[in-house]
Amino acid sequence: MSERERPPTNAAKVIGYLGEGRACAEAIVEWAYAYAALSRADYGAFLDAVAAGTAS
């Protein structure tokens, strides 16, 4: 199968759907920071539960 015949990758599909440019990049960065904050909060809650002996 030649390069031109291959189906698009997931990244290419996302870019095709969202478009290119600064707005798309900023939206992805905003989401990534929000997800990181949520992950930190979840981990903090987990550590609190471990310290309290209530983690299962």
Tell me about this structure.
- The chain has 56 residues and is mostly helical.
- 71% of the residues lie in helices and 0% in strands.
- The radius of gyration is 19 Å and the shape is elongated.
What's the gist of this structure?
The chain has 56 residues and is mostly helical. Helix content is 71%, strand content 0%.
Layout: helices, strands, pairs:
Layout: H1 10-18, H2 22-52
Question: Beta fraction of the residues?
Answer: under 5%
Radius of gyration: 19 Å
Determine the fraction of residues in helical runs and give it as a percent range: over 70%
Query: What is the tally of helical segments?
Result: 2
The poorly predicted ranges are: none
Q: How does the major sheet shape up?
A: none
Quote the average pLDDT.
85
Shape: elongated
Distance N terminus to C terminus?
A: 50 Å
Series of H and E elements:
HH
Tally of strands: 0
Structural class category: mainly alpha
Give the tags:
single chain, 56 residues, mainly alpha, 71% helix
